[in-house]
Prior knowledge:
The protein is of the alpha/beta class.
Amino acid sequence: MNKEYNTVRTTSNEQSFLPINPFAEPTTTMSSTTNPNHPHIGDDDMIDIDFRNTTNEKLNSGVMNVDLVNTRYDDFQTIDWLKDLMRDRFRHRLLRAKTRQSFLNKILMYHDAWSGWLCVLLVGLSAGVIAGVIDIGTNWISHLKHGICLNAFWLNREQCCWASRNLQYTNVNTEECTEWFTWPQVFGTYKTGAGQFLLSYIMYIFWSTIFASFAVLLVKVFAPYACGSGIPEIKTILGGFIIRGYLGKWTLLIKSIGMMCATSAGLILGKEGPFVHIACCCGNIFSYLFPKYGRNEAKKREILSAAAAAGVSVAFGAPIGGVLFSLEEISYYFPYKTLWRSFFCAMVGALVVRSINPYGNGHDIQFSIDYSVPWASFEMIPFILLGILGGLWGAFFIKTNIWWCRFRKNSRLGQYTILEVVGLALITASIIYLNPYTRMSMSELIKRLVSQCRVEDMIDLCDYPNSQFVTGKSKGSVGLAGPGVHRAIWQLFFALIVQVALVTFTIGVKVPSGLIIPSMSIGAITGRIIGIITEQLAIQNPSFILFRHDCSKEENCVTPALYAIVGACAFLGGVSKMTISLVVIMFELTGGLTYIVPLMAAAMTAKWIGDGFVRGGIYDAHIELNGYPFLDNKEEFNLTTTAEEVMRPRPEQRSALAFLTQSTMTFADVENLLKETTHTLYPVVVTREQPYVVGQVLRRDLQIVLKSQKMHRYRLSSTVIQFTTTSEATLNPDYESDNQPEQQLTANSEVIRVGNLLDQAPIIVTDQTPMETVIDLFRKLGLRQAFVTRNGRLRGIITKKDILRHIQQMSSHNSEATYFDN
Length: 822
């Protein structure tokens, strides 16, 4: 009895010289129902088969051909770099071949060529605008804890006092004017005393708690992925991992608002690190305007790499440093054309930030310095000392912060995220208000510490009673430090203790938070203290062998502000383990190109010392803590094992490997296999008795085929599913003799041919292949998995998570790590 079946076929009117494309997308429609687990995004919808462009055929032989290849990835899966890049190359060849048909196709070809530049242009513009808005909003909200400009409430304290005729400065260089009203003055208290201090103290704690509570509520209710800096996750995503919703629209919005609130709350965290996450959200959103990138995960990562560079560029005004940061620290796949697009994207972002002028200094950098005092050769000793301290700080912070994050994750504390943030905000605000150097924001503190003393400065850090004014702008601090400097040193020392203690417990809470500015602040405090000590030693001992040559003249031979810059570089390098990009970011951040050698020495020393205690930086440590399947392509492995010792199932295990046969499995067999296992991919072999690998097929493709057949056919349990095509049986003369079981099975059975689902080019290694070779294959080819064979027969499979688990077991003999399935 003849039956009519709906089939899905590729179009046959393509040019004959084009190769057969095994990775072409079928005619599909996107379901209007989004994934319930991620209600705010629509790029993870299921693919439904579209029968509108198909024809009904009567198949007298009972054989049906199905042509379907799925190109989407499920959540928490690893992409297939080889297949995605090959699919893009075929798409480009097809587009180029069609240019001969019409002028419109030629225009489409040109549009495809410059779509990447247009996409990174949009990313740079959007990242720059968002960064400018966040910087302006953060400054205003931060100053709201201290008071308000009643005549123009939208102005922060610095802007409110710009045109004031009664402008004064405190002993820490904070503006005071009649136009700016502190909260005691708003409530009618103008007298100084214990009452005014207590009211200011209460209002500071009140606003800090309100801002922190608002930030954590936004994250918990609307966008859980908006917490943290996002750099470890971005690094994992660029390595080929899928995290649906992490770069979505809601995450972008909530992280932008939450950053302003969390930073303004006074918590020991920064907003510069999360700019990388925000820029990558912009890159992900704009990539969907261009199908070349939106429908290809491997190509999309080129846009995300450029977006990461723009994130650093808009955060620090360092476009070159942003490109190097993306290349050195973030990106996994970084072709040459991505380098130029990253440079262009970073440049556009920096230009937009400069046009907005959020810092009010006419520059696109936060910590601009206006001095270029030459450094002496003997100062290399304290510079290296700062590098050593930075490396020790990095090792200490990584170990303690990971220990605390693991404790939070495995204890009941992780269930009370809101109470943790609110309690931390109360404790932090209660402590930091008592010290004028911690009361101000960390960005303002770093700006004070890296600035050289001027003639008009009457602050504690510049209290040199007997100083000589060598130039009209700078103080030549050839004189003993006054009581103000001693008081400032003690206050800075206590500020250092407070920040070191609090940042360990703050980084990792469920609010948007970055580690870059806290590390730079701690390093700048340490550097300024060591700089003042070195300066006083040089003044009091001018005949000492180290100071005799450089400090003999009547001029300033030591610049304490320079030590703050070097210290910030060293401590940030100790935590992140960055070197080249860090040095470039620092001299772009400050404009101090003269001091590139001290910065290089401090950064390299910090990395060497830190590597002696902890392998990898803080971002790598959090990737390992969260169990993300990230295989670093810069790390070297010295393993003596073979593929047989890593594959699953291992010879000593009794579990069997799940696989499909080419021509002998019924519809019910395949359906039962999918119910009993949860693998992403299945190998296809000839027969159970002859397990020679012929290809691989994705689980999701099988699910779509089974679903579509159930909708249009009945009595499918005995229907045979063959991973072959009609052309294969025709072209292969030995096909009938090699598939006698098939001939017997299909004599009285209906057959569904799904040969176009089969990927006939899987990566195969032998069981005696060294693991160093296997790891190189996975890193350089971006593999998801590889099949292990012996004498051509299938023995097992190796996935990326198997390699990561094996590496950890070999390095720490710990098998408790859990990695997401890929």
